[in-house]
Fold:
Amino acid sequence: MLANFIELFKKRDGATTLAYHHIWLENPQIKWGIIMRKQYWILLLLAICMISSCAPKESYTILYEAKKVEEEQTLKEQEIKKHFRIAYIPKVGNIPYFESVYEGVLEAAKQFDIELIYDVPTEAKAEIQMQIVEKAIQKEVDAIAVSVIDSKSLSPVLQRAREKGIKVVTWDADAEMSTRDLFVDMVDAENLGRHLMDQLALQTNEVGEFAIMTGSFSANNHNEWVKWIQTQWKEYYPNMKLVEVVSTNDDPQKAYAVAKTLLANYPSLKGIIGNSSVGPPAAAQAVKDTQKVGEVAVVGLSTPNLMRSYLHDGSAQVATLWSPKKLGYLTIALTQYLLTNKPITDNDVIQRVGAIRFEEQQRRIIMGEPIDFTKENVDQYEF
Amino acid sequence: MNFNRWRFRNFSLRNKLLISYIVITILPTALLGYIAYSQYVLSVERQVGMYVPRLLNQANNNLERQIDQYYDEMSQLYSQTDVMTILRNPSYQNVSSMRQDIHKVENYLAGAFMEGSREYIIGAFIASNNRLFEYTRLTYTSGYSTKDKIGFYGQSYILPTEEQIFFPHETAIQFNGDKPYVLLVKQIIDYENRNNLGTLFVALDLEFMQKTLSTVDEQDEANMWMVDSKQYIIYHSNARLIGTIDKEMKQYPILNGSFQSDSILYSGAQSVHNRWTFLHSIPVEHLTEEADLVKNLTVISFIAIISLAIFSSILLAWGVAKPIQRLVKEMKKAEKGNFDIYLPDKYNNEVGTLSKAFTKMLHEIEELIDEKYEIELKQKEAELYALQSQINPHFMYNTLENIAFMVEGGEQELVVDMVTNLGRMLRYSLGNKDQLVPLQKELRHADDYLMIQKARFEESLTYMIQVDPILKDKILPKFLLQPLIENALEHAFIVGQVLKIQINVTSEKGLMIIVVEDNGIGMEQNRLTFLEQQLVSEHIINKDDSFGLTNVNGRLVLHYGSEYRLEINSLLGIGTKIILKIPIDGGSDQQNEWEH
Structure:
């Protein structure tokens, strides 16, 4: 059958060629028509050959392409990633604790390529801090990271900043919950308060008078801790007696004076808890100066650097703290998260920080567990 | 033109039917089959092309989860305060305290990474502050001295991310027996002091991957491999290829998804967090194995069905076309005048009806023709008969006048002879029921006639009749000779010359040859030609004076066929010779035929 067909076309072709031969001579344009007809099959064959042979050998046909969700995300991130300006505002500048925090802040700023607007209250006074925040708002920073001295006076200002589209992150000490986007807390207040009480009880064999030196009565975090210290004391240590809660205003001189006064007023005092970093060193110094080393135990929140000598000479027993460097780093890192709309979840592992807790409802971060510094380990820490 | 033959409409019915059957049945089935098959293959490829990347992604995720677990275990280091303390304190007072620390850390490494279910870990190292702590299952070699290694990976070495994977070609470590491995690297960061304490390495035997990949890599024909961004093959289902470079990879159009090259289906999935890509390849024919089986079966059955279809369509086409072709053949035969056709009566369909009708029609035509022929023949015969049987009135008159003279002259004997002769002639004429008579009788009649004429013309006429005796009983039509003699008597007389009429009957090659010859006036050439034309022409009857000749000729032709015409030879002034040829006994057959 096929042979027949081929024969058919051959013959037909030959015949047409003959039939039209005389017309060619008269109408040259027909000639081309005939030639085209004649060569049609050859052309078709050629075309097929071209298509099949000229195509590159290593041709890949895509059958299915997976959605590149991840790539898109990274692209977005890169787009958003710009030169952010963050105003970093501690409570006060000239104490080692905040200087340590600042070290961490610098580390993060360098890593994330952030421009820091660093303005420090010369004194831990709410008005000064308010002015600094106002200035930051005027400078149209992208975010404000602040350790709040006085929640009541600062919250309205922070609210205004937020209304201007500035992200507000509080750290170390919180403002009103509604006036900030995130609070980076170092430790769980209840845990810390109860732990500090336990530390003191351990040193005084759970008996005797003790006093608390708090930072300031306006600072939310200090008040929280004091509350939990007292809760723990009331629950577990009936043989101990809290004689006084005094404020240091985060001023080393004032703290030293306060400590001296406490030691003078309560001769049978067995221990002092300091809940801000200036408290314990001042208390230890006072204990040392009044030759009551071994008689009055000093525990509380303070940095290893401040406490190192006191721990070694026995004028202080335990210092408890977190790494302020880590706090600084984490604060800036999380501010970066907010600015780039990166989600934060509970138990998130933050690069170079580790796992953190996140209380979604209160938008509160808990950096981790407090570290106890003693004579044995205090030399490992450099802040 | 010859090419007209190749136009479809000029094809024979059989070929048309065949082509139509093939076009209607085979082409659509073949096309349908082809399309169905190719679509199926395409859909299988697409499905696999979507399915495999998902599997690969799953494998990726599994692997990443596994690796994350290992990283989690590595992170446990942070809770080891002893170890952390050692790592934070790089300076030693004496060797023994350093050895003590090394012992502690290596114990930790052994306990944390080498015990229990962590069978795939072949080694763990901590490089920290110019110290190297290590614990390995296998001995290893490294291109660097221990000191260099520490310098390289120690405290100063900062990774872009805290956790990272090194592939074998990125490190100088080589385990005993070239065991393929990946190196999980974790920066040990002192979160509190914000500095790097060193780096923790865990070498993982690649076998840990095999387990994960075996879920994907089920088929024997399939290949699966894992490459890093530099085309280095970290893992391959063909173990020999581990550690080589995948040269083709640069040409792959995508790494997330599936693509096809020649007959191989490739799939790929990139790791989200790490720098590897899983690739999978499988020959397409393996995927379409089942389809191919079905295809082959289909093709075989298709061919079977097709050949059956062709066979049956040939039969069918022939069944339709053959009787028609035969009909056409027979019709052509009939057209040429041969009504002797045979058409088998076996079909009961339209063709059969057509055949029957045609046969019937032919028969009717034949009958009609025969009928008409016979009628005409009879008519002519009758006409001729009527003519021939006429005794010329002139002749009668002359004869009777002669007899009257003779009676007057008293020639009684002669009168008796004349009357006898005339009586015999009349009797011969009347007794004309027999159309055919023996030669003898015809000659007798001619003799009678001539005798009567002799009596009339006396010395002016002589005649002679010669006959081969064996022919005497041969049969010939009646009244053949008389018109010829009449003709001679009418036209041949030359005044003052004796007219000799000679009748010779001889036989030659089965023919009776009768020659009637006279020495009369003869004929002019024109007249002869005219006469010959008259003889050939169909019209037997004319009222010409040559009526006698044409009559005889017509009857001869009627009886014996056109080849038995009269022959006339004549020369002016010399005489005329008329030759009759009659087949001896031959006429009887034809006469029989006429009677049909």
User: Anything to note?
Assistant: The two ends of chain A are 98 Å apart (CA to CA). Confidence is low (pLDDT under 50) at residues 1-36, 53-57 of chain A.
